[in-house]
Automatic annotation (TrEMBL):
<keyword id="KW-0732">Signal</keyword>
<dbReference type="InterPro" id="IPR036249">
    <property type="entry name" value="Thioredoxin-like_sf"/>
</dbReference>
<dbReference type="Pfam" id="PF13098">
    <property type="entry name" value="Thioredoxin_2"/>
</dbReference>
<feature type="domain" description="Thioredoxin-like fold">
    <location>
        <begin position="48"/>
        <end position="131"/>
    </location>
</feature>
<dbReference type="InterPro" id="IPR041737">
    <property type="entry name" value="SoxW"/>
</dbReference>
<protein>
    <submittedName>
        <fullName>Thioredoxin-like protein</fullName>
    </submittedName>
</protein>
<feature type="signal peptide">
    <location>
        <begin position="1"/>
        <end position="19"/>
    </location>
</feature>
<dbReference type="InterPro" id="IPR012336">
    <property type="entry name" value="Thioredoxin-like_fold"/>
</dbReference>
């Protein structure tokens, strides 16, 4: 019985270290998320200046799938480093009141932007191109969207597929085919 209590105490003391940091808005925070004025045109410019891709993470307080991503997937070194090295990440709150400026110049709350873009579920990630015309919204300009929580391999493959601009290639390897190939390569040991 003593061993049980010692094990339980060890687990309880380890829990705060395993938990993702929560901000005042109740959303999980990572070191690679940017705190910006949420003018998406400016954020895109900064991302381009840094040689990175802009990704918009739409999340909400209490989202169990957001928690899964922030506690199980994003902390993995290969995922975290890839995002940090290649992406300029701006987090938006599905129900937030913070003002943002969409690419089309409209100033609206985060929750109004989410409705405008037709986003219903969290997490959702919008991957932006390097250039967006001033008549486009974030949703209409996005080169890809990742709706929901996925495993580390799928997440890393999506970020890689977008970063390598495979959506532009003339091949027939859409994301699903790319991801299936990457799974096979990992099983065969022919990739990292």
């Amino acid at each position: 019985m003593k061993r049980f209590w010692m094990t339980l105490m060890a687990i309880l003391f380890a829990l705060p270290a395993l938990a993702a940091e929560l901000g005042d808005d109740g959303l999980h925070k990572t070191e690679w998320m940017r705190d910006t004025f949420k003018d998406l045109r400016e954020d895109l410019g900064e991302a381009n200046d840094e040689g990175k891709r802009l990704a918009l993470f739409i999340e909400q307080r209490g989202c169990i799938y957001c928690t899964k991503m922030h506690t199980e997937i994003y902390p993995r070194e290969e995922v975290s480093s890839y995002i940090s090295d290649n992406y300029f990440v701006v987090q938006l709150n599905l129900h937030g009141d913070t003002e943002i400026t969409d690419f089309d110049g409209e100033v609206l709350s985060e929750k109004a932007a989410a409705r405008k873009w037709g986003l219903l579920f969290t997490p959702s990630i919008l991957f932006m191109p390097e250039e967006v015309s001033e008549d486009q919204t974030a949703q209409s300009a996005a080169v890809a969207m990742m709706p929901g929580a996925f495993g580390a391999g799928t997440t890393l493959d999506m970020f890689t597929w977008v970063n390598e601009k495979r959506y532009e290639l003339d091949s027939e390897e859409d994301f699903q085919r790319y991801h299936a190939r990457r799974i096979q390569e990992r099983q065969d040991g022919s990739t990292d």
